[in-house]
Write a structure and sequence with these properties.
By secondary structure, this protein is of the alpha+beta class. The chain has 2 domains: about 1-60 and about 210-275, FAD/NAD(P)-binding domain; about 65-205, no CATH class. It is about 35% helix and about 25% strand. The radius of gyration is 25 Å and the shape is elongated. The model has no long low-confidence stretch (mean pLDDT about 95). This is Putative flavoprotein (TIGR03862 family).
């Protein structure tokens, strides 16, 4: 879709180009995530060429890239980290994260995706901290980890004493290797501290083509109170075209529906004002 020189709407159809002249138009063209389904964000350049300010579109509710070791990646790809606390800066989220071949994703990651994304874009990397046993106090963990190990392997000891999953233990091994230390050689106090503050270096944002949604879009100061574009009278916008982002769980749909209703009411208001 584009506009012709007379202000009509120009559509590419199976029968060639078709021009439609409308009394009012609502643009609800989506963001730029999952472009193979049609929402590729191509409208951004069209509107920008008409002088409308569009905040650059970026991935939202997305996964992130992490340079896992080959051993960790091959063994734990697809495994969930359940009931963990994820922290970046002052933001913490309790939930689940999933190890992917190229990094990490999942509900708790999506909830922190805005903070992670902006940190990566600003600094090139971001540090994510994972608490594997967030409900266990530090002194209790130290006491459990100070118990005799006997003849069991260190992994079995961690599994029983700290009730850690295999992927959680693998994550601890990743952190120990990255710091040049042996996990089994850590004193109980340091090990307890690491269990609830495992550092993960995030090195990039997963492609927008795989993001659940997108951030950025038409700036709100380009719209009037009825969601009409100030520079294009009679043209309204709604949904993920607008410059906002929200977590998953129905919020994206709710905001898209709500702005659609507001734009529809704006159309009625506009048409009534033109009739008068």
């Amino acid at each position: 879709m584009d506009g012709d020189a007379r202000g009509g709407l120009l559509f590419e159809t199976q029968d060639g180009q078709r021009t439609v002249n409308a009394d009012a138009t609502v643009l609800a063209l989506g963001g730029a995530s999952w472009p193979r389904l049609g929402s590729d964000g191509a409208w951004a350049d069209i509107l920008a060429a008409k002088g409308i300010a569009v905040t650059p579109i970026k991935p939202a509710n997305s996964g992130f890239t992490v340079a896992w070791s080959n051993i960790f990646r091959d063994r734990f790809e697809g495994q969930p980290l359940k009931g963990v606390d994820l922290t970046i800066g002052s933001h913490t989220m309790r939930g689940e994260a999933i190890v992917t071949r190229s990094g990490i994703e999942g509900g708790a990651i999506y909830a922190l995706s805005a903070e992670l994304r902006e940190a990566v874009l600003a600094n090139g990397t971001a540090m994510l901290s994972v608490a594997l046993r967030p409900d266990v106090a530090g002194d209790e963990l130290v006491a459990r980890l100070s118990a005799p190990k006997g003849k069991q392997s260190f992994s079995n000891f961690l599994r029983k004493a700290a009730q850690l999953s295999p992927v959680g233990i693998g994550l601890l091994q990743e952190a120990a290797v990255a710091s040049g230390r042996s996990l089994a050689a850590l004193p109980p106090a340091e090990l307890a501290e690491l269990i609830n503050a495992v550092p993960i270096k995030v090195s990039g944002v997963a492609p927008i083509a795989r993001a659940i949604s997108s951030a950025g879009g038409i700036r709100f100061d380009e719209l009037d109170a009825h969601f009409m574009l100030r520079r294009l009278p009679g043209v309204f916008a709604a949904g993920e075209m607008l410059d906002w982002e929200a977590p998953t769980g129905g919020y994206l749909l709710q905001a898209s529906f709500a702005t659609g209703v507001a734009a529809g009411k704006g159309v009625l208001n506009w048409l009534n004002s033109q009739d008068g």
